[in-house]
Amino acid sequence: MAQAKAVAKYWITTTDLLDHVLKHEKRIQLAEPTKDVRIVHRLVSDLFCRYVQLCRSLERCYDQTLQVQKRTVIQQLLEAGQTRMLELRTKLQEIELSEFVYVDGALQEQHLIPDDVLAVRPCYFPAQRPDELQALLDAQKLPPFIEPGSDSEDESSSDESEQPEEEQVPVGKGINRPVVKRDRRKERLQAALNLITAHERARQARVRQTNFRLHPDRYYPKPIDEEIVDVPYEFFYRPGQFMLYPVKRTVYNWDFRMKKKDVVHFAYYAPPGWEEQTVRVASVRWPDATELALKQQAEDDAAAELAQVEAAKRLEEALERIRLNRAAAKIQRYWRKFKALKAQKKHRFDRSKFLGLFDDYEPKLGDELAVAEVRAARRARQPEFDRSFVAAIADEKARILRIRGPALLEDITDFVRAWFREWYDETLAFDLIPEPFQGGTVLIVRGETLTPLEYLALERQKQLDKLKTPEQKKKEADAMKAAKEREQEKKREEKARLKELAREKRARERKEGKTYDFTEPEFMTNAYLTLEETLARYRKDWAFVNELDNLQDLPIMEWITLDKFAEVHQELHAEVHELLKSERELLQMALCKDERMKYKPPKPKKPPRAKGAKGKKRKEPIDPTADLSVESILNELVERNVLKTCRKRTFEDYIGDYNYASFERRNRLEQDPPPGMGEVRTILQSYLYGMGPLVAPKPKSLCLVGPPGYGKTLLLEAICNETGSTLFDLSVDTCGPIEPNNMAYFLQLVLRAARLLQPSVLAIEGVHRAFYKKVPQSEQPLDPAKLGKHLFKLIVKQLKPEDKVLLVGTCDQPWVAKVGPLKKCFDKILLLPRPDYGSTVLLWQYALRRFPTVPRDLDLSALAKVTTGYSAGQILECARQVLNIRRRMQFGRKPLQVGELLDHFLARITPQYPIADKEYEKFVKWHRKVDKLAKQRAKVMRERQLLAEQMAAKAAGAKK
């Protein structure tokens, strides 16, 4: 109950936030049109930040709301809000002429941090497939997308032990015996483990032998008849050593090496049935005086000896106390020195942590995990409420049919028959009942058909038209034709005028700059209008519903009753239509017979055909895979090695920081800074909103460009894993065995399977190979160009906005491909940035902290400064090779040094260096050719640079 009440309160707060955002947008629409791009950027970025927070709140409400009718409203608001948010992001990209936008000014005004406006994984990911399709897909044994041990594999997969593969090899005369492939790496680890275990056992044996040799009284068993001696004993444990003193135990758990005591003669113990014998008292004889004197002298001598022994004992105790004091002082001296060194080391650690040299923050995930479990449990109840809602609808409809159905049928028939009577009384005729596609008898009940007076007026007009002469008819036809031509001429003139205005506007914008008007459709989009209408309709419908009282999230039955009553009314109209139509024909036949007229049955009307844009019938493409079943399609794709599985990757595995100085450099210094690696995650996650069950705009295709080791394959697998997509491998190697004549059929088969199993990702590794300018000699047998010929026509062009299918390509040599076809196939082309200092620090932290014994105060700042520019793959591979098992075992006596990591790059036969600036510039130049925004931004930067040079030259001339 408490949770339901909290969700209801949060939804009320979210509606207030939505109202506030809409009011803020209305205030922006009142702003005057301006040409200042900075003002527009500030207003749009402020609105974008507000919509990001609104979408996050709506998403949480959608995730935790169980009431089905309210969840439908929230879904509409969330879809419209996400669409509006992406529209504002697109507008910012057009203003900044870049895929990566920066809204630091709006963050400062609203007191937010960058994480508050980052794209996050929606709660409704991934979209669920039908159970039968998912079961069919799970039954297939799919190969991995990245083969174990391949070059494109990174360090995380190489640490995992490979599963032994069974092969069938011929042995003897045709006998096949399964042979397990040897795992060399696992055998080396097992051999090392055996060697370490053997050395440890030998050490323990040497310790045991030395103890028995040097301390036989402590370690050898005591004599059997020796009584139990109480000794002071403190239990302590040293691995592999025996106890210095035997533990005092009961007689039931004594040392197994000693014989059991005689329990009968054991002190303090009497066995059952034991009886003590009474001791006989003897007669006492009194001693004489001599005996008493001798006894007294013996006692005095014993007392003197005892005094001497006591004095010697006290002296020995004093000496022992002195030795113990000296030992304690020595122990304290060394302990204080150890504590001082430890405090000094902790002080250095705290100082380095305060200065930001490293981050040793370990978040406590207990509370977060508990909250996530509670939310997941509530989310899991949504299907139960959906089923209950569907059952309530079915029950309500059955109840209305049972109770109100017969009365409704009688009311409809009585009303239509009264309509027949009215027509006959006023016109002596019967009007036609509209066809079901026109509205049927519903139009009669609503009164939207011809009235008798209108019918008489039409009949009178028909009689007058028959009396007109041919000249009059021709004159009227010419007049109508002339009026139609005048109307068409006005439309053409208006169209030409609008076209001329648009041309003048574009010319004025090129000359003077674009004028931004916040009342134009580019700002007041359908998503904004949908938000307003949905919120207004919600507040009108739910005005008299107290949501805090409905803590059981029960459906509102009044609305269900009204909807089902209207639906039942429509169904009953359809059922009674044929009966009333027959009655009307009988009445018309009787009327013709009475009037002695010839009966003409009415011609049946056909529903209008759906036409194309120009009135022509749309020709549907022929699908050669229409006769194939889903199972046969999947089997064929599995045989062709197209359907594959990918590793469990997320966008968090793509390590990288943001470029926090980009806003100032771009908006104040008018520079073009490169984006950070962390911004790639945000832009990719914003592209994937449309891959979920909700409606949101998304690109059809996406291409990731970058040098080797920059994480292109990792991002591809993260896209598949985050969206729960089925992976189709369309690389050149997979399509190589396919004949060129069958390539079109193969791509149509893949597209149909992708739509059936959506969400789906069509992956093409090394997409430049499909668009070679000149095919290398080694790849000519594969004929890679056959894929590029059909890729746009049969895949990209056939994708619809509602399809949850995404084409993703990776490319590390884009300059060897034809620019035109490659640019045509991909809507978005992203160039992955080089790791900067911040990203390099995070990469080294991630690479080294995977090993718990690595010191946390390692000088990562200097290491990152030296290795800035190295790819993420090179850094992770360096950490994996340097910190092997042998090196990690030496951490106790040989701490890790930064020089060891640098030596891996430099002290080798072939040293590794980061990608050169000249080589990376090739990627940048190619990206400017294919990306529209990058091309425009490069042009603007050249103009700014030229203007700055002219101003500098003018200032220098003025000084002279």
TrEMBL record:
Keyword Coiled coil: yes
Annotated source species: Anopheles melas
Domain AAA+ ATPase residues, every copy: 698-836
Organism phylogeny: Eukaryota, Metazoa, Ecdysozoa, Arthropoda, Hexapoda
The name this protein goes by in its record: AAA+ ATPase domain-containing protein
InterPro entries membership: AAA+_ATPase, ATPase_AAA_core, N-DRC_Component, P-loop_NTPase
Gene Ontology MF terms in the entry: ATP binding; ATP hydrolysis activity
The keyword Signal appears for this protein: no
Residue ranges of the region described as Disordered: 144-177, 467-499, 597-622
Bias kind Basic residues: ranges: 599-619
Swiss-Prot/TrEMBL keywords: Coiled coil
Coiled-coil segments: 295-332
Alphabetical list of CDD domains matching this protein: IQCD
Bias kind Acidic residues: ranges: 150-168
